[in-house]
Amino acid sequence: MKQMHILSFLMIFFLLSSCKGNDGDVIETPTVVETTLKTQSLTIEQEIDGSLVSRSVLIQAPLVVDKSKSYPVVFAFHGRGGKNTSWVNSLKEFTNAGTFVGVYPQGHLNSWNLGPEPSNADDVAFVNAVMNALEDIPNLNLDRVFAVGTSNGAGMVNLLGAKTTYFKAIAPVVSQLITSIELTQQTKPLSIFQVNGAADNSIPIEGGNKFGHTFLSALESAEKWASQFGCDSTPTIKPVGENTTYSFGNCTDNVQINYLRVEGGGHNIVASYPTLWSDIWQFFQTL
Predict the structure, then answer these.
(1) CATH assignment at residue 227
(2) β-strand 208-210 against 101-105: which pairing, if any?
(3) Which one of 35, 94, 179, 259 is CB 3.0 to 4.6 Å from 214, fit for a cystine?
(4) Are 56 and 42 in contact (CB under 8 A)?
(5) What are the pLDDT digits (tens) for 98-124?
(6) Which domain holds residue 152?
(7) Quick check: is 238 in a domain?
């Protein structure tokens, strides 16, 4: 009997050890999983700073689910101090209609850990656990997974684009690459729709030091992604009203790198560019 207890302990220890993130965080299996596609809240427990923390993920499904359909998935990441619930109204015209299923994780301490942030969570491991949980939900097309993020959440989607392989495209909004995010040979080619406001007083469009990070300029950020994926070094520049798009072509695996500069846009860029989410989805769905 004593040998059986020892064996059971070792099996549990092995299972927990196999789920550790890069910094030792432990990702548990979700405590709430619905095996049908529906609007629901998913809870994932993660060890952060020595304590087990319950982290929520909202899943926004269509009002009427077509069980013969496989829906694309769009992750959305809030900014520092924000809540995942803010995405419900922002994207409901798409999720209600069944255009895609929305997945909205909550940042620990309302932030995403990019280094000098309130949170010390391993957020890449957290999102990996969310992706694993989605595999148990039917009618999701996990070959068409996209991500959008604003501000600190834009930094998070840049980090995920650099360090994971499951996103087909990302849209970082009102933030750009920071110098601590390294693009390597392991960074899988993916399409980028980067959006920055020229009048943003929070994240400097011309780059520099802010919030403990060193930001590339917005254009340098797009150029870095383009260089990483072998795109043309000179973008096609196209005016869109008062705004400007920079498109880098001939990229590896036919990915697309687009940078939209919104001339009157501040940090709350939707106020001056109300079609932003529609434009981003148009970009995603062409891929």
Answers:
(1) 3.40.50.1820
(2) unpaired
(3) 179
(4) yes
(5) 999 999 999 999 999 999 999 999 999
(6) 30-285
(7) yes
